Amino acid sequence: MSRPNTRRSTESGADTQYGAVQDPNPSRMAARAQSVKAAGRGAMSGTSATTYWSVDKWGIPSQPQQATRRSGTLPAHGSIPTPPAEVFDGLNDLEDKMRATLSALASFNEDERMILLRQCRHEEACAAQAAQPIPPGLLNTHQFRHMWRSLGVKLSREQAAAMFLRHGCDVQGLLPYEVFAAKLQGSPARLLALEPEQKGPYKASGGGWGFKGKILYRYCRKPVFPPSTWDGTLAAVSAKPPKAGLILEWVYGYNGKHNTAPNAFYTANQKIVYFVAALGIVYDPANHTQQFFQGHDDDISCLALHPGHALVATGQVASALDGSADSPFLYVWDATLSPPTSVQRIDFPAEGGSSSRLIVAMAFAPDGERLVVVTGDNRHTVAVYKWRNKQLLNQGVGHNGQPPQARCMV
Questions:
Q1: Alpha-carbon span 96 to 194, nearest angstrom
Q2: Nearest-CA neighbor of 211 among 236, 189, 191?
Q3: Do the beta carbons of residue 21 and residue 133 sit within 8 Å?
Q4: N or C terminus of the chain with fewer C-beta within 10 Å?
Q5: Is the pTM of this model over 0.70?
Q6: CB–CB of 283/290 below 8 Å?
Q7: Average per-residue pLDDT in the chain?
Q8: Is-contact 355 317, C-beta < 8 A?
């Protein structure tokens, strides 16, 4: 069996094969030659080619183009418009169907890849007989769809375009079918390695929930993959808050065993104010009802009552919700209103790399205009505020040592 002679053009760097169908379009040949030159420059600057892709043969892979025509009018070759995201989301299932079809047709003398390449070469030969030849080893989207239709798998134009963009096509929108066959019939481990990557989990907004490739998590050393039965529509539903919600009706318990700071007071209207977890609670013993102050996002650590017996100050531990856990804060709120309402908030951000950790204790001055606060840093810093305008009047060292050394203030 004779082999076709091959000669490489030294001017363009493109491959020309004699004895096979050659591209009759000079402008397309020139475009391919320019892409090879550009690929050479890209390789020197660190640009990597697609896996299995030969830059010498096909130039640099085509980049997705935005569609300039109405949806459903994708060109058979030339630049490939980018199909909608949901088309890409369904490619894994489509490729599974392709593999199953080839597996059903395979025999002892002809495996799946041989069947696929035979069909591709048949499409190539039919195009040559119809006087519509294209460069050897390449298919356009029309041939690609016709080939799979003959095997029993129907593809839309958008699906064919997505396949071309996923597996690599040249600047003319033509797919090297040997590259496609190598990727489609690769080993499972190799296929996993070729999967696209996504950084971070699925986002609540922006779509992309049908992604089934590699997912890189910050705290995982190796990438993870969604389940093989993953249904992206479930993530779309989870991204929206449920129509049904929860209403806080009653809080049981009292945090008095481990909390030795003052933590329960009577208000001016003879209600009891105390706290449990991150909730400030106003209990009405006459009617056996509760109302809640829900401004805190982590455990409340101390409570102080204003001399007027209407306002309450509650301080909390530094929340870890933002990942920092170094900025506790306090609220002054009105316990006589329904519901209890915030009057002022004072934050205690970390300074010089030292976190305040929590609010250890608080007390109002007899005039009610000043608030003394002890924080949970190693110096047990004592701060005096004009709390209505958050003006810091003075601060100093309370007690050196691991907190809490101070338990309460009077």
A1: 15
A2: 236
A3: yes
A4: N
A5: no
A6: yes
A7: 77
A8: no
